[in-house]
Amino acid sequence: MNLKQIAKDTAKTLQHYMTYQAIKTVLIQLSQTNPPQWLWLNNFSADKIQDGEALIEELFHEKPELALRIILVRENIVEGVAEFLPEMIITGIQQSNMGHRRQHLERITQLNLSNPSQKTGQQANLDDADSSSD
Amino acid sequence: MNLKQIAKDTAKTLQHYMTYQAIKTVLIQLSQTNPPQWLWLNNFSADKIQDGEALIEELFHEKPELALRIILVRENIVEGVAEFLPEMIITGIQQSNMGHRRQHLERITQLNLSNPSQKTGQQANLDDADSSSD
């Protein structure tokens, strides 16, 4: 498991996601203050949202003032949320894993409880028990 | 700008991404140790990679030993990389923003340098200067 490479890939993915959130934020602001510019940016970004860097690059040629605004917003967003992310995702994944493990244990337990005769009165056929639980 | 909501959405997106990285890691391991199981998991996950939690939920019904392995791997991944992410993404976005601003300044400067006659000999027509820079 190459943790260093995974960390790099994750940071890159996060950077695209922050750019997406910045564009979304600027779009919400424009929808209230400048509907024509909202419409323009909405159309411009619609098919480019997958690659934030390329979108910003192109936007600097088309409307530099909007590009400058978006990169400022994404800097504010990342500075505002980054420090909270480690605890949030560690806790999120640990809780989710605990939930999956608990459900799995419950299924196994119910499986055993629902087939007491197989366990006491006859040889348990685990293959049958498995398929009857689905 | 609702930073709290953005932090929550980002953590959720990251959780899906960690699950994707865990599946990718287990697939790489299986390709070396158990090709038939690699093929099975590869086919199983192909159209479900967008929603990691739903994939794990379903995998617990199909092959619980693989599901347990994937959630263990994603817990190891998140514990291994989470603490480094804040600095990586803050630095990444700041450097990217600096690059975009520098390029923008260079374009503006070249624009002014490439039209000296317009500035000294005649009234500068900024519209013309803008269009000639593209």
Task: Tell me what you see in this structure.
Chain A has 134 residues and is mainly alpha-helical. Chain A has two domains: 3-81, Chaperonin-like RbcX (Non-ribosomal Peptide Synthetase Peptidyl Carrier Protein, Chain A, Orthogonal Bundle), CATH 1.10.1200.210; 96-133. Chain A has seven helices and no strands. Chain A is elongated. At the A-B interface, α1, α3, α4 and α5 of A face α1, α3, α4 and α5 of B.
Q: How many distinct beta strands of chain A? A: 0
Report the CATH architecture of the largest domain in chain A. Orthogonal Bundle
Major protein interface: A-B, 54 and 54 residues
Structural class of chain A: mainly alpha
If helices are DSSP runs of H or I spanning 4 or more residues, what is the number of helices of chain A? 7
Whole-number total of structural domains of chain A: 2
In whole angstroms, the N-to-C terminal distance of chain A is: 34 Å
Helical proportion of chain A, percent range: over 70%
Order of helices and strands of chain A: HHHHHHH
CATH homolog superfamily of the largest domain in chain A:
Chaperonin-like RbcX
